[in-house]
Amino acid sequence: MTIRGALGGAAGDLVSILRTRLEIFSLELAEEKSRIACLAGMALAAALCLFLALLVFSMFIAALFWDTAYRLLAIGLTAGVYAAAGAVLAWLLARRLRADEAPFAVTVEELGRDAELFASVGQALDDTGAPDEDEGGEAPQSHRRTRRPS
């Protein structure tokens, strides 16, 4: 096999590897986009429903204690419960965001494996001890280029 043929084969392999990695990336991107859209829609609907429920519940508590001396205490305690629940939810959200794995983890993992493979192939070629043209070895006669007179 000639050097040109080997380089052509290696270039073809490299293009094939890059194509596969880009396909993996595009699949992960579509999954991530779909997941984020679904989560955002559910979060918005849940927030709207909870807000309306809290509003009605707050009005119920205020109306229940309106004719008593404890109406301000009831309204204040209701607000305190909401604040505590909001703080807990914010903490859970922050913990979840820190714990989620990075998007495109499969693509990064595959690219890491590719880099290791290329490094091991390069190391194996270096370990064979075959002389390079730059290191004083001569290329076989069939691989030498000769300049044609113009």
Annotation keywords:
rod-shaped, mainly alpha, 150 residues, 3 helices, single chain, 0% strand
What does this structure look like?
This protein has 150 residues and is mainly alpha-helical. It has one domain (3-128). It has three helices and no strands. It has helices spanning 3-64, 71-99, 105-127. The chain is rod-shaped. The two termini are 29 Å apart. Mean pLDDT is 78; it is low at 142-146.
Task: Give helix % range.
Answer: over 70%
Strand content: under 5%
Tally of DSSP β-strands = 0
Question: How many domains comprise the coordinates?
Answer: 1
> What is the rounded Rg?
33 Å
Helix-and-strand structural type: mainly alpha
Number of helices: 3
Largest sheet: none
The helix/strand order is HHH
Note the gap between the termini.
29 Å
Mean pLDDT: 78
Low-confidence segments, given as residue ranges, are 142-146
Q: What best-fitting shape do the alpha-carbon axes yield?
A: rod-shaped
